Amino acid sequence: MSYPRKGAKQISELANGLIDPVLARRAGINTALLGSWSEIAGEDFADCTRPEKIAWARGGDETGGFRPGVLTIACEGARALFLTHAQGELIQRINSFFGFAAVHQIRIVQKPVSQATRRSRTPPPLKGEAARKLEGMMEGIENDKLRQAIQRLGTAVMGKRGNQR
After folding, report:
1. What CATH number has the domain spanning 17-110?
2. In whole angstroms, what is the distance from residue 22 CA to residue 39 CA?
């Protein structure tokens, strides 16, 4: 009889235990591949690529053994051309990560990979008492850049809900 492990479990162990079966069923990949992708892809392609899925061949080869799959990689824009030329090296890195010939081909799909950074919107200008109070605080500042920076900061801080009066 095995007893459950005592002590605290890492959140990553619990999350991987939940996510890995879903990823394996849907995309044929696991969280270890996703987590190590930047090391596998190298510094040239880590920022512009992301593994999407592995399409495993159904059945086996003629002898009933394992057949390697096709890895679909999302790549941004013109970098896909460079990735095409580095395909052989990337396949070797992926297979060495798995420890066996898991992938024999890479399919490249051009699509945005990095999450678009949301630009912070500028807060609306202050009105009334808050605007006069901020102007009074900035009276002795002569440097224009410093004055503009403090103006932006003061507008953001004093413009929060409930602070404008």
Report:
1. 3.30.300
2. 23
**Which tokens is 105 given?**
């081909």
What is the torsional sign of CA 9, 26, 68, 110? negative
Task: Give 81-138 pLDDT, tens digit per residue.
Answer: 999 999 999 999 998 988 888 889 999 999 888 765 556 677 788 888 888 998 898 8
Two structure tokens written together for 157: 């801080």
DSSP 62: T
Domain boundaries along the sequence of the chain: 17-110, 116-164
Query: Which pLDDT value is given to residue 127?
Result: 87
Greatest CA separation for the chain: 85
CA gap 164, 110 in Å, rounded: 47
Distance CA 27, CA 52 (A): 7
Does pTM top 0.70 for this prediction?
no
